[in-house]
Amino acid sequence: MYRLSRLRFIFPIGLFLALFLDGSLSNLWAKLYFAYPYSMVSELVILWLVLSYFFEQDISIPLIPFSIAAGVVFDLYSSGILGLNIFLFPLIVELTKVLSRYFSPSFLTIIMIFFVDIVVLMTLTYWAYSLVGITSMGIGDFLLFSLTPTLALNLVYFVIFYWPVSVLYQHALNDQRV
Predict the structure, then answer these.
(1) For a FRET experiment, which of 55, 61, 64, 161 has its CA 20 to 30 Å from that of 2?
(2) Which domain of life does this protein belong to (predicted)?
(3) CB 48 within 8 A of CB 27
(4) From CA 16, how far away is CA 74, in angstroms rounded?
(5) Rounded distance between C-alpha atoms, residue 166 and residue 169, angstroms
């Protein structure tokens, strides 16, 4: 059904825009996002993947392959090497699928699931970087100076983008049925 849907164009374009905006906003507002000692990480790609899962309705978007591709592009663009996001983006999609089984979709449950996704993504990234010695930040500093500002930024993104993405998906899906 995905092949016949307008989402076959809208979803990849939105994913590309999310990838582009993640890097561009981080560069444009670097002084705000990375003001010592705080650091905020823009996770628009995760937001797009999570909202797409909830808004796809009966269209099955192949989110796992797209999330792997987004992880490859994100890693190569941000660091020049393949890294964690190749594995973490699909893991977050799967986590979203598992959590959504226990809750009926509404604004509050979707924001809660997105919140959990960001916490898991950031915590696994922190843990992996601590394990290999890339960071020596303590867990308290991570929670206070990195995770909390990242959650605040991405929850603002969620509130801003939830309704426009919802309307975009409704428009694409309603025009498909006519």
Answers:
(1) 161
(2) Bacteria
(3) no
(4) 10
(5) 5
